[in-house]
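Hello forum,

I keep getting stuck at the same step: I have a sequence, I want structure tokens, and every attempt I make locally crashes halfway through. Rather than fight my setup again tonight, could one of you with a working pipeline run this one for me? It's a single chain of 798 residues.
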Amino acid sequence: MAKKRRKSKASSTPKPNRFVLSKKNKIIFGCFLIVLSIALFFSFISFYFTWQADQSLLTEFRDRNAEAKNLLNKFGAAVSHFFMYKGFGLASFLLPVLMAISGLYFFLGLQYKNLIGKWIWGLIGMIWTSIALGFFAFEHPLLGGLIGFEMNDFLQDYVGKIGIFLVLLFALIVILVQLFNFSPEAIGNYFKAMDLPKRKPKPAKNTVTSKVEDTPLSISDEDSEINLDTYTHKEDIPPLEPEAPETSVTNSSDMDITIAQPEEEEEDVNLQVEAATVEKEETSSTAEQLVKDFGEFDPTLELGNYKFPPLDLLEQHGANTSITINQEELEENKNKIVSTLKNYKIGIAQIKATIGPTVTLYEIVPEAGIRISKIKNLEDDIALSLAALGIRIIAPIPGKGTIGIEVPNKNASIVSMRSVIASAKFQKAEMQLPIAFGKTISNETFVVDLAKMPHMLMAGATGQGKSVGLNAVITSLLYKKHPAEIKFVLVDPKKVELTLYNKIERHFLAKLPDSEEAIITDNSKVISTLNSLCIEMDNRYELLKTAMVRNLKEYNTKFKARKLNPNEGHKYLPYIILVIDEFADLIMTAGKEVETPIARLAQLARAIGIHLIIATQRPSVNVITGIIKANFPARIAFRVTSKIDSRTILDAQGADQLIGRGDMLYTQGNDVTRIQCAFVDTPEVSKITEFIGSQRAFPDAHLLPEFVGEDSGTGIDYEISERDSKFREAAEVIVIAQQGSASLIQRKLKLGYNRAGRIIDQLEAAGIVGPFEGSKARQVLVPDMVALDQLLENESNT
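Reply #2:
Ran it on my machine without issues. Output:
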């Protein structure tokens, strides 16, 4: 019985546990493997550059005075010689990779049961790679190492080179099948998938050919004959509709007139904005769980029932939306152009007309040997012969081998905002901030992305369509963006141009916390608003820095995926667009105080979603300075009064030759595009703002950061207990530097501008600095530290 009890007792005693690393030891061991893998990696790389110089030092490893050329000195030379020369050659690089993976497994506390399999297949891969390199690079033993060289030499004696190749091929197939599930079906499915995405051929256009009984448009004389005359009119073709048929008319004189049918307006179009799909990145388990439980963050959820303005709010200006082709006018203008050039002995090989809403472009191909400058100098002569307003010659047209002559139409067509918004190009635009300006000279809808401009400068004389252009920009964004995605800061010194947008204050506008009205009409408040935007810009850059992203789009994408913690200050950031209607008036009244923050915003605010749109009537150099022009690559010029103004805004001529009423030139640093701006009338804007304003809105307008300027000192006596904790340090900084300014306190004490402004007010109340004196620094009333200590001691005693 005693023996049985002893046996049962012995059997019940637990067996000694196997060796298990603690969490701390796992982290230490993992770090050791990662560091060792990095050391091996650099020593292996250095081996191929220093092995010859380090050969003689391998036997002098114990000599401390000897120094190797390897990046890891004698240790690197010895280890790399062992693995690279005596071992597996280039295949040895798999060793530090396996060590680094193992180190990460231990460091992150992952289950390392699969590591044995990784090491087994890694060693097999090293052996296979070494033998393969030795086989294909037998004359270079360093590539395959001594193992690869000797194994090839051994196998060649028994199976020859063909046998070695077959053995390597069989081993490679085994590795592919075991590791990557290699199979013939997988190969077949891969090639089938490659054949699927083939585009279907577009259906051929229907053409109708008929005869014309009128007189042929050809010019002939004793010296030359011109028969290659083509008149082309292009039009946008809306999607989801059959393509518009082209009507080709051919007469007896080989003269072709091709007119594309105008695009039809899409009446029943629902402009719905869907959030762009974002490719999912590798997320942490917490973010993945939050997305599974609650879905991605939706910034539009607070106003989930918001409805976008319908097209019915916009009017279709003009009785006929299509462009009227005046055959007599085309023939007459062509004859006058040809005859004028012929008078100066300039022959034409071909002429072509592209009809736009307000301007017709005549493209001519001069005969060989004609100088372009000779035609360009005849601008006034052609204008005189045509008796037209604003002839503009483009010599040559970029991207074409032709010279363009733009002639205004006698009966201009109005481009309505409704036709532009309803166009397929605007509806299908995959842009962050799409803007539909109007239609080009070829009657194509012109849509650009404000986020890629990134800022826009608009200039033009009074009454030439500048304010209508601003309304077109704002209307485009109101039809495309949700109130949670975009905010406007509107500056209107005229006090009458942008007041209609007061109705959408709680939807789309942003303002200062203490402002009663969101639209800024007082020039004194513009400075505070611009500086507040600078503070907002700095705050946003801090958020991007902590989120480790480069721009606003990446930040919002990361926030929607719930990878950023709102408790750490992160939030969804809407786009902010600053619109200034009359910039020249601000420069005249405020000067540098306005130019400096605008230059800062223009230089830095692009990445964090703050974009500027500045309009002015007078594009002179004292208004549009060099600093502003350098940071506003996108520029729009309506008609101006002189060539100097045209060069100021566009750096090129042409704006002085426009015909007005919305005729404009657009450039973004390369080519200049002529556009007829879309017309949106004041009643239309009023209907849009009333429709948006009648819906449920946010509690208040989007509030910008508070800005406390240096001119805000009030002389109010502060209690000693209410003083800032940095008051004493700030006073010492001011007295030592003998310069009283909030910016100095910001730099020295690393404080925000608001807090530094309050400290300046407290220093003024304490009698340490004087009152605000404009652009000058405040006067320091305390001469030295002794007087400061005495002043503060007297205050504490009282």
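DSSP finds 27 helices and 21 strands in the chain. If your local run keeps crashing, start a new thread with the error log.
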